[in-house]
Amino acid sequence: MSDSALDVHISPERLLEDLRSDVRQGLTASPKWLSPKWFYDATGSELFERITELPEYYPTRTERALIEAHAQDIAERTDAAILVELGSGSSEKTRLLIEAGIKHGSLAKYVPQDVSPSALSGAIEQISREFPALEVHGIVSDFTDTLQNLPADGRRTIAFLGGTLGNLTPEERAGFLSDIASALIADEFLVLGVGLVIDPDVLVPAYDDAAGVTAEFNVNVLSVLNDRLGANFDRSQFEHVAVWDADNEWIEMRLRAKEAQHIVIADLALDIEFAKGEELRTEISAKFRQEGITAELADAGFGVDQFWTDPQERFALILARRGR
Question: Full-prediction pTM beyond 0.90?
Fold first, then answer.
């Protein structure tokens, strides 16, 4: 049986305090916003898994195909003893990297990180069953402040998949990539999955599917605020909106108020007004061009070793090497 452990670096109390802070800041801003990390309660996580299986939502299956095609090459080039995954969730696609690393003969430890203890525990149990010789060491934390807790007892590769980098603003991305570079030493690697700029007629439906699953996922964040902060949002009074911002080259998901509303968030003693048609931004999902993400990585201290795309050039899998 594999050796497995789970370290908790963020408490439920700290998560609640972060939620309170984000909601107070975001809902009193103009325009209003929320961080996408609050989507993922149990219902939100289940809905997102359904989204990844939708015909319109190409990113997950495209990234998986790229990992499947290049996992062995990644294992050989990185020669990693430790694979760290930030925002691991169910670790579904990562199994391909783990399998390739074990086959290569170098990989001894997998370190999944996620903010959800339940998701992480389930993934650890499954990975430990599938790969009994692998040491699995989970970290419960926010991925933006995990890097100081990474193990340093072997050559490491960090994986950050799913296009999640695009949920950060350019300023946040710059700081985050620099923090990853600072956590690694020369010639260690980052495996990064990012969505590419493509035709909005293909891109927008990936975030606004015909079956309405993404709409349900988006509106569910209001249930999180109701359940955790004693808010009184009426979900039926908000509609899902997904738009392509050509200037910033990102998708924005928003919730639009169907009517003027007065919202009370009891736990924050906060009263919020929504005008009819007013929108609350719940997520950005930036898309990249090769030259742009290469420059961002270079600024952080990485050189691009490999840049793989699918035949339709919708998604990229990047192998970036920490510079000296």
Answer: yes
